Amino acid sequence: FCVAEVGLGGRLAATNLLCGKINVFTSISLEHTQMLGDTIEKIAAEKGGIIKQGSITVVGKNNAGLGTIKKIAREKNSRIVLAKARQIRTNFDFQEFELEKPEKTGPLKISLIGAHQAENAGLALTALLELRKLGYNIPKKAIKNGLLKAHNPGRLEILQKKPWIVIDCAHNLGGFKALKKSIELFGHEKLFLVFAVMDDKDWKQMLGTIKWSELFVSKVNEDRALEPQKILKEFPQAKAFSSVGNALAAAKKIAGKK
């Protein structure tokens, strides 16, 4: 099996050379608007470009672009399968979820934390169930083990406790909203945010999403990186550093155990 992740859009992505049996749509939010369009509908239309004639389209019941994806799927005679997962319980080592749609499955465990990861696991599980209907022998035990072993570096990855050091590569508003919900798990007294971002991101809204106590800003070694001085103009209480490493060291220096 080849699992190919589409790049920027979908309609114009190089992955369109592949004829996928199953198209899986994760959450859609406003991103790369200068190339994909400035509304969810326009972005969903670009992403919907991966749908092939007669394929199967798996999409979350609560996906913001659902209406547009359904329309394109119908035009391409693609069968639409709606997925809905429910988080049952969670801690720092794993979370338990069950699939409610298209058919009750679970409960199952995943090692990734955050409610959005339960949704993602639900989409992956739905795709696997569709493959089984197509006649592929995928044992329940393989699904159970595969979900539990899945590891995603840089996504709510816990590097240290007391104080917590957690890294996350959320880089759009949707990602930051998911991050905000996940941060609540940690029961912290203060949140020190070490932040570096690309210039074309909606960083003002991103920084306004999370309630941080201290903001440490820096830049990554990329041509598109945002200069910390721009952030200081909007958030003068922030502290600027020449590297992410220096920013992290400064945050650790003043951090208490909580």
Task: Describe the structure in your own words.
The structure is a single chain. This protein has 258 residues and is of the alpha/beta class. The strands form three sheets. Strands 1-2-3-4-5 form a five-stranded mixed beta sheet. Strand 8, helix 7 and strand 9 form a beta-alpha-beta unit. Helix 2 packs parallel to helix 3 and helix 6 packs parallel to helix 7. The protein is globular, with a radius of gyration of 20 Å. It starts with 21 loop residues before the first strand and ends with a helix.
Task: Describe, in short, the structure shown.
It is built from nine helices and ten strands.
Jot down its keywords:
five-stranded mixed sheet; three-stranded parallel sheet; 258 residues; 9 helices
- The protein's oligomeric status is single chain
The overall pLDDT, averaged over residues, is: 91
Query: C-alpha Rg, in Å?
Result: 20 Å
Order of helices and strands: EHHEHEEEHHEEHEHEHEH
Query: How many strand units?
Result: 10
Estimated structural class:
alpha/beta
Tally of DSSP helical segments:
9
Please report the distance between the alpha carbons of the first and last residues: 44 Å
> Main β-sheet: number of strands, strand sense, barrel status?
5 strands, mixed
Helical content band: 25-40%
Spans with pLDDT under 50 lasting ≥5 residues? none
Strand order of the largest sheet: 1-2-3-4-5
Query: Beta fraction of the residues?
Result: 15-25%
Approximate shape: globular
